[in-house]
Task: structure prediction
Amino acid sequence: MANNVLEDCALEAQGNATDAVIKATLLVVQTIFSNMPTGGHSLRNTKAAKPEHFNGSRDKAEQFI
Result:
């Protein structure tokens, strides 16, 4: 009888932990999506930076790193 009670408590705790993980994951996803740009006007005016020329020198490579 005591084992059954302990097993029920363990299963309930595992279910509660799983629910908490799912809720936390959904909250993170919701936060990410709510902070993403919507693709509106600001993205149309965005330009890529012009890449710098790399001549293969060690000094340039060390600067980059």
